[in-house]
């Protein structure tokens, strides 16, 4: 079998099964594990999969920068954001992540809502200027321009005196065994710190982020108490998450 054909078969199996194991691939194709590892490296460099110990997982397609993602109108995004916005109640302290779905969530918060929103996203802060009863605490730090959020030691230090009721997290990958992940190391640290300062974490995840992984792990799946997904999401994607003890809400 040609290398090109073998790679095509690997991707087909990955799409079908949600993961591939190097040892099993080696036996299936009758080649060495070194050959399989080379195939996986090359496919990973093309962004077609995410290598993990012993094999590979589907790569998250959610890698475009904020400006590109913001230009894409999405009924799904609005639906997920709407369900999340209804979860916020008067008097809470809420941490709101960066990202286009989170911006849409901020937009859908009721004008009469009396609450405090903590965010490291200037975009969220600006969106909430028109909500007169929402107090906004903007966390400073180094600006990560790809996602328009602050990251780094200064941002994490600013969290030290905050104890929130709930954190609404954006991710690029949600996987039953690989956990929650994102495409930038400093963002991963920041998201983990935000989760540590909230009583519960709610993940906002469109179906393209489910059963997928990115390079940097935020934490185990159980870091989230709830995941909000689009209504049309196939149960084959959500059942493994629910089996891990996470509440799934369809928007």
Description:
The protein has 251 residues and is α/β, with parallel strands linked by helices. The protein has 2 domains: 3-58, Arc Repressor Mutant, subunit A (Orthogonal Bundle), CATH 1.10.10.10; 66-250, Rossmann fold (3-Layer(aba) Sandwich), CATH 3.40.50. 38% of the residues lie in helices and 25% in strands. The chain contains 10 helices and 15 strands. It has helices spanning 3-17, 22-29, 33-45, 66-70, 75-86, 100-108, 122-127, 153-158, 185-196, 235-243, and strands spanning 20-21, 49-52, 55-58, 93-96, 115-119, 134-138, 142-144, 149-151, 164-170, 173-175, 179-182, 198-204, 216-219, 226-229, 247-250. The strands form 4 sheets. It has a 7-stranded parallel beta sheet with strand order 6-5-4-9-12-14-15, with helices on both faces. Strands 1-3-2 form a 3-stranded antiparallel beta sheet. A 3-stranded antiparallel beta sheet has the order 10-11-13. Strand 10 (173-175) and strand 11 form a beta hairpin. The radius of gyration is 19 Å and the shape is elongated. The protein starts with a helix and ends with a strand. The mean pLDDT is 91.
Layout of strands and helices, then pairs:
Elements: H1 3-17, E1 20-21, H2 22-29, H3 33-45, E2 49-52, E3 55-58, H4 66-70, H5 75-86, E4 93-96, H6 100-108, E5 115-119, H7 122-127, E6 134-138, E7 142-144, E8 149-151, H8 153-158, E9 164-170, E10 173-175, E11 179-182, H9 185-196, E12 198-204, E13 216-219, E14 226-229, H10 235-243, E15 247-250
Parallel strand pairs: 4-5, 4-9, 5-6, 9-12, 12-14, 14-15
Antiparallel strand pairs: 1-3, 2-3, 7-8, 10-11, 11-13
InterPro entries: Carb_Metab_HTH_regulators, DeoR-like_C, DeoR_HTH, NagB/RpiA_transferase-like, Tscrpt_reg_HTH_DeoR_CS, WH-like_DNA-bd_sf, WH_DNA-bd_sf
Keywords: DNA-binding, Repressor, Transcription, Transcription regulation
Pfam family, one: HTH_DeoR
């Amino acid at each position: 079998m040609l290398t090109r054909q073998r790679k095509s078969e690997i991707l087909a199996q990955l799409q079908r099964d949600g993961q591939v194991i190097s040892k099993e691939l080696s036996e299936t194709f009758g080649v060495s594990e070194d050959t399989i590892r080379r195939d996986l490296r090359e496919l990973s460099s093309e962004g077609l999969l995410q290598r993990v110990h012993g094999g590979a997982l589907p790569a998250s397609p959610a890698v475009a920068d904020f400006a590109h993602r913001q230009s894409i109108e999405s009924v799904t995004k609005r639906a997920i954001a709407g369900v999340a916005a209804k979860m916020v109640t008067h008097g809470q302290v809420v941490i709101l992540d960066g990202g286009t779905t989170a911006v849409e969530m901020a937009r859908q918060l009721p004008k009469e809502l009396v609450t405090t929103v903590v965010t490291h996203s200037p975009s969220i802060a600006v969106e909430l200027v028109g909500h007169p009863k929402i107090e906004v605490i903007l966390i400073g730090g180094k600006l990560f321009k790809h996602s328009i959020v602050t990251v780094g030691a200064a941002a994490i230090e600013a969290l030290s005196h905050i104890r929130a009721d709930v954190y609404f997290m954006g991710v690029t990958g949600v996987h039953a065994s690989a956990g929650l992940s994102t495409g930038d190391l400093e963002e991963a640290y920041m998201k983990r710190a935000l989760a540590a300062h909230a009583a519960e974490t709610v993940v906002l995840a469109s179906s393209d982020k489910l059963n997928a992984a990115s390079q940097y792990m935020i934490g185990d799946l159980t870091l989230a108490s709830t995941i909000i997904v689009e209504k049309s999401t196939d149960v084959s994607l959500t059942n493994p998450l629910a089996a891990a003890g996470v509440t799934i809400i369809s928007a």
